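Posting this for the archive.
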Amino acid sequence: MHNDSILTHINIWLSSQLEESKCTGYVVGVSGGIDSALTSTLLSLTGEQVVCLNLPINQDSSQFSRSSAHIKWLEGQFPNVRGEVLDLGEAFSGFQRVFSELDLHDISYVNLQSRLRMCALYAVSNTHNLLVCGTGNRVEDFGIGFFTKYGDGGVDISPIADLLKSEVYSLSRHLGISEEILSAAPTDGLWGDNRGDEAQIGASYVELEWALKYAEDNSSTSKATVNLSFSERQREVFNIYMDRHLGTKHKMELPPVCSIPVWMK
């Protein structure tokens, strides 16, 4: 992997996106995880204005401290970076009170947290004319749709969405991102029990990368046929991947539009 070439390519791409948008910088949510750590570092390297938001909602203390430490590290290295903490816990509690009689499913509240963070990012974006930057990688954004629609999926640009998780780690090590973040188990931080991504998905990112590559290389082959050549675990992982990939297509595409025939207008 040509880390320096990729860094240069992303830097040029970010600059072109900023120029085209007529915005004055970037805003990004920093969670304490590897993806947002890499994204915020890449933004900082542009030399343009970067606002890093730590957006806790009843957050696990380890996630909050990793986020705070990473933002402080960026501020110490890059004069163009400014960090802010916006505690959204009270806002989330307010929504819980409003919805208390509706008997909503837990997943509704999980996604609500992500959507509240999106609202905060766009509030800052609108005020300071900044681009909202996504932090999803390729496996999450285009493989299994592991993001909240109109939550962390609601962004202006996605700098690392063509990088596999292994490539995210490679670039992060190359840039000197802290070992504490590199060694932390991937998590979306949206569940009270601090469950990790891989526990939710049922497969590791290494396994999901294999499934993604296999699916792309064999896109014309039916799911039932390719399973015949797999080991039991490969079959299980591939089914997890394909079920999530097909089931989250609506997240990756524009909403369907009902086209009205010209003669009706």
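Strands lie at 25-29, 49-54, 81-85, 130-132. The first strand starts at residue 25 and ends at 29.
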